[in-house]
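Bumping my old thread because nobody answered last time. Still need a sequence for this structure:
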């Protein structure tokens, strides 16, 4: 750390980043266990606490709130200090946010396996924890926007625009979706009912993906990718178009989850149309980030950290093409309630979000701890290929399983009777579910290589610093 870093609060950033790495491995490991249970149901061990229904929300919460939440909080607090050229608004507040967020995650780790859940997608935690989430999020917002307010430069860097949107939108839709009537300390009921509840839930569910897993990660990438590539953002104007396009259209797209439901058709149509429009700003952002990397082709060809970033952009293109495709009624009729949707989600979650996070960890953590280079470039290369093999096995197997499953559900005899039974569909999917487990396990094994590499990097003495100390 050089002298100019003295004004910045880096210790709390380190804690967030370490927590993000721990939750990434834990959340993904639980995901691999769930994939194994789907192929070998006996791995539930006849335990009410270790079965799919209890562990699945723990997996999603661990990955979304543990891995991504900690990563974005740490990255945003680092980036807002650097880009605003000032320290945090309040250091004590930063530690309150960190420990408050970890308390929430531990409460989730305890309550979800015990079966205390609202049963709402990505919003399973019960009302006392929801209140704690809202309070910690407000403190985080005060900390972030307070730092922006005391900035020493007039300009607000584009990454902070994305972080600001992610903070505001998540707060708004989280509170609205989780308005509920408490019955006991561990049970509550939503104030909404029927179709209204579904609309509000998918306003939240889709935009939790849109703003935590998309806008926040884009903001992080707009800072770290130019740094890693040693090139400026390809087009700053395009980054602003990317921002306003996502803000303008993403929040309307959630009802594409409710096609062929009792929700009014015009509401379904809005979700479908907005999903198609999202192609433009999504690919504009992907093009901008990709071209930023391609400005330094020699480094891109040899630097596996940049390759991780570039791969993430490719998967972002794929996910943002596939998502609007699945929002079209005909495709939705085929894909809904099949493994195809799971393949789509994880090609985005593993390909876009996880690869972005992995690249950020490899680039950011050595610099944060004052190390000149990674402990092992060989382990980095191994991780790169293991991650890609894992995603390929995972996504392709579920695409094949899902498309086949969709056609089997739709197949009918001439008298209108279904051709295939539930068991026949399961038999068809079984080998593909095994491949999904293998792919997920390979990906998790790659994460363990990353942890080893980064731990060794941090623990390796820096000869330059030792010489100065002597």
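Sorry it took so long. Here it is:
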């Amino acid at each position: 750390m050089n002298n100019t870093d003295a004004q910045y609060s880096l210790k709390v950033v380190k804690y967030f980043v370490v927590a993000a790495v721990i939750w990434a491995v834990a959340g993904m490991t639980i995901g691999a266990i769930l994939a194994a249970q789907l192929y070998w149901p006996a791995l539930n061990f006849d335990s009410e606490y270790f079965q799919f229904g209890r562990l699945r929300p723990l997996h999603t919460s661990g990955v979304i709130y543990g891995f991504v939440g900690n990563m974005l909080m740490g990255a945003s607090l680092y980036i807002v200090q650097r880009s605003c050229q000032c320290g945090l608004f309040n250091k004590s507040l930063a530690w309150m946010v960190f420990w408050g967020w970890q308390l929430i995650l531990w409460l989730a780790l305890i309550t979800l396996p015990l079966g205390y859940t609202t049963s709402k997608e990505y919003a399973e935690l019960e009302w006392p924890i929801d209140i704690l989430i809202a309070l910690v999020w407000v403190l985080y917002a005060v900390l972030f926007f307070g730092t922006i307010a005391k900035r020493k430069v007039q300009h607000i860097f584009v990454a902070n625009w994305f972080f600001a949107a992610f903070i505001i939108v998540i707060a708004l839709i989280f509170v609205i979706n989780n308005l509920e009537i408490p019955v006991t300390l561990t049970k509550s009921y939503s104030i909404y009912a029927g179709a209204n509840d579904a609309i509000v839930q998918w306003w939240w569910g889709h935009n939790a993906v849109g703003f935590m897993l998309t806008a926040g990660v884009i903001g992080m990438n707009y800072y770290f990718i130019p740094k890693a590539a040693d090139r400026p953002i390809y087009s700053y104007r395009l980054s602003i178009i990317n921002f306003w396009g996502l803000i303008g259209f993403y929040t309307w797209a959630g009802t594409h989850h409710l096609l062929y439901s009792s929700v009014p058709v015009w509401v379904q149509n809005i979700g479908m149309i907005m999903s198609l429009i999202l192609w433009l700003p999504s690919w504009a952002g992907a093009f901008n980030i990709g071209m930023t990397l391609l400005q330094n082709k020699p480094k891109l060809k040899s630097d596996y950290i940049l390759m991780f970033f570039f791969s993430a952009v490719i998967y972002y293109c794929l996910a943002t093409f596939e998502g609007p495709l699945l929002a079209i009624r005909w495709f939705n009729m085929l894909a809904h309630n099949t493994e195809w949707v799971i393949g789509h989600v994880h090609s985005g979650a593993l390909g876009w979000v996880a690869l972005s996070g992995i690249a950020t960890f490899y680039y950011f953590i050595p610099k944060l701890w004052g190390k000149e280079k990674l402990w092992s470039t060989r382990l980095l290369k191994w991780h790169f290929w293991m991650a890609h093999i894992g995603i390929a096995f995972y996504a392709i197997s579920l695409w094949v399983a899902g498309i086949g499953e969709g056609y089997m559900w739709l197949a009918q005899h001439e008298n209108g009777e279904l051709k295939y039974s539930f068991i026949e569909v399961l038999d068809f999917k079984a080998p593909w579910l095994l491949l999904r487990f293998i792919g997920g396990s390979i990906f998790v094994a790659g994460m363990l290589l990353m942890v080893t590499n980064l731990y060794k990097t941090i623990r390796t003495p820096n000869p330059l610093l030792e010489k100065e100390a002597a």
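The chain has 16 helices and two strands. Let me know if any region looks off to you.
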